[in-house]
Amino acid sequence: MSTKATRRAFLGTAAATATAAWASSRTGTARAAEAGPNSTINIGLIGCGGEGRSVMRGHMQCPGTRVVAVCDLNEQRLGQGVKATGNDSVATYRDYRKLLDDKSIDAVIVGTNDQWHCLCTIDACRAGKHVYVEKPLATSIGEGRAMVQAARRYNRVVQIGTQQRSWPHYQQAAELLQSGRLGEISEVKVWDYDYFYPGFGAPPDAAPPKEFGEEYWDFWLGPSPKKPYNPNRFARWYWFFDYAGAWQVDWAVHHYDVVHMCLGVTAPHSATASGGMLCFEETNTEWPDTFSGICEYGPGPVAKKGFLLQYSFRSGCRREQRSHGKLFCGTEASMLLDRSGYTITPDIGKPGGEETVDNVFRESVHLQSLAAHAQGFLDAIRNGTRPSADVEQGHFSTNPGHLMNIAWKTGRKIRWDADKEQVLDDAEANALVTKPYRAPWKLEV
Predict the structure, then answer these.
(1) In what helix (H) or strand (E) does residue 273 lie, and over which residues does it extend?
(2) Which of 163, 181, 210 is the last residue of a domain?
(3) Does residue 30 register a pLDDT over 50?
(4) pLDDT single digits (tens) 109-143
(5) Angle (nearest 5°) at CA 74 between 374 and 192
(6) Residue 114 contacts by C-beta under 8 Å, 6 or more apart in sequence?
(7) Partner residues linked to 70 by β-bridges
(8) DSSP 328-368
(9) What's the average model confidence in pLDDT over 76-102?
């Protein structure tokens, strides 16, 4: 079959299936009514920032859903969350634990900053709620494992927001890689290139703004060390050690997840990393502005001799045409894959020509992808099954970034025991597998 015919057939079937959630938004109200009230899933949103609201809108596109509550510590964002629901009478909370007390809520979206993903998810499972938690799964490997344990102990559906798993062209790319089309895979390069120069500055500490107040700023800090309010700690939290793991965790979890899905693996056996402040001017943020790491994987079902996963981030130059992507390197061909589609290029001297497949999502791509991913979560709740982006997959996909960060912090290569989830023969590095919690918060399942 010709490349064009293959591409046409794929686009026809994939568009009809993977975009069903988006298409259903046009008739969602009628279809939800037909399904009856017993199948309606009541949803609460915890964390009303931009991505939290986007994920909520994605769920609202799916039939048989109703947002009944929103929660945020920041009053301004809470108001934005209410507005995004289109219902001024929706229940509002500042404390997520009070939202979880609402027995009418079936599932919650955890759209908070990373440091709250773990506790909100565990508490929601304990309260009998299913959970859609934004990526990355957690701020430490130990937290991620605790979230998996909570999902299993309380028999809840917990899905991570790695929505690329629900995109048709990523699924087809996985099939092609698993078919052996690229030959022997020896290396996968993934990257995030952004332009944040000259950096985020170093604003002084200040009193919390009125939409927080001291009480809710302390709540925002949660299990992390007590620190005074700083504009960058709030707005740029993903660049601080206490709250996130920078792009090599927060963005790159999407890449690692696709690599794991395509190559049928779950964990590397070693990690190393280098980086530093190599382009920013004065800043009070902490993670490097330029970072590279390598994870080594053992033999698997696709890369039968093992492979290197090479990650690169830089914040001072975005020259590449594809600023967030993955390159699978095989002995027969390479595959360049990102959200726009993928291109297979035969290696030098190999037969055939370049083949390109585009993303099937066309209108409001981000919302379409979120709706498709949300539909998988909702289907799993109704069917009593685990979703494709199950919490344990999310745990495995978040860990490579954590391991690179541990290697960077200790300044040496580390070896990883994936079964025990421990760093081997390195007590200092192993101590970073789980973060300490500030009282009275506790990491308990």
Answers:
(1) strand 270-276
(2) 163
(3) no
(4) 999 999 999 999 999 999 999 999 999 999 999 99
(5) 55
(6) 136, 138, 139, 237, 238, 243, 244, 245, 249, 250
(7) 45, 92
(8) EEESSEEEEEETTEEEEEEPTT-SS--EEEE-S--SSHHHH
(9) 97
First to last CA, the chain: 53
The DSSP secondary structure of 290-326, one letter per residue, reads: EEEEEEEE---SSSTT-EEEEEEEESB---SSSSEEE
Instruction: Say which CATH number the domain at 420 has.
Output: 3.30.360.10
Query: How far, in Å, CA of 223 to CA of 243, rounded?
Result: 10
The yes-or-no verdict on residue 26 having pLDDT over 90 is: no
pLDDT at position 392: 98
- The pTM of this model reads 0.91
Token output for 395: 């745990």
- pLDDT tens profile 321-375: 789 999 999 999 999 999 999 999 999 988 888 999 998 887 788 899 999 999 9
Domain at 154, CATH number = 3.40.50.720
Contact (Cβ atoms closer than 8 angstroms) between residue 272 and residue 414: yes
Q: Are 248 and 405 in contact (CB under 8 A)?
A: yes
Q: Are 29 and 66 a contacting pair, CB within 8 Å?
A: no
Residue ending a domain, choose from 108, 135, 163: 163
CA neighbor of 324 nearest in space, from 335, 311, 333: 311
- Please say whether the beta carbons of 183 and 331 come within 8 A: yes
The verdict on 339 and 238 lying in the same domain is yes
Is residue 18 pLDDT above 50, yes or no? no
Nearest to 309 by CA among 268, 345, 249: 268
Residue carrying structure tokens 């998988």: 376
On whether the CB atoms of residues 43 and 27 are closer than 8 A, the answer is no
Could you check whether the bond before residue 400 is cis, i.e. omega within 30 degrees of 0? no
Instruction: Please tell me the total count of domains within the chain.
Output: 2
Q: Angle of helix 3-18 relative to helix 168-178, nearest 10 degrees?
A: 130
Task: Give the pLDDT score at 318.
Answer: 85
In SS3 terms, 99-161 reads as HHCCCCCCEEEECCCHHHHHHHHHHHHHCCCEEEECCCCCCCHHHHHHHHHHHHHCCCCEEEC
By residue count, the chain amounts to 445
- Which one, of 298, 301, 297, 331, lies nearest residue 311 by Cα? 297
State the Cα–Cα distance between residues 156 and 364, nearest whole angstrom.
31
